[in-house]
Design brief:
This is DUF2516 domain-containing protein. By secondary structure, the protein is mainly α. It has one domain. The protein is built from 4 helices and no strands. Helix 1 runs antiparallel to helix 3, helix 1 packs parallel to helix 4 and helix 3 runs antiparallel to helix 4. The protein starts with a helix and ends in a 5-residue tail after the last helix.
Amino acid sequence: MPFLAQWIVWVIDWAGTLVGLVAFAHAVMQRSDAYTAADRMTKPVWLAITGGATAAMLLFSFFGIGMIFWLAGIVAALVYIVDVRPKLIEVQRGGQSW
């Protein structure tokens, strides 16, 4: 694989891992009751999902034999970032924004 392609794969690999770490850190810092109020799974479940996603992205590479695990990890982390995180923020700010 040419150097540029290796560098691009490395950047994607670590960017995905960073997304997983951000998702896990956000999940850790939220109140447990906010998950229930936002009508999402419980905090321990999301901690396991985001923690497992981050671990999968650390252990497996974007370009390699374990790519399917890396992809599952990035999808799980992005679901948290895109779906759960905004709902938690909305619930903790007081709901309606006019």
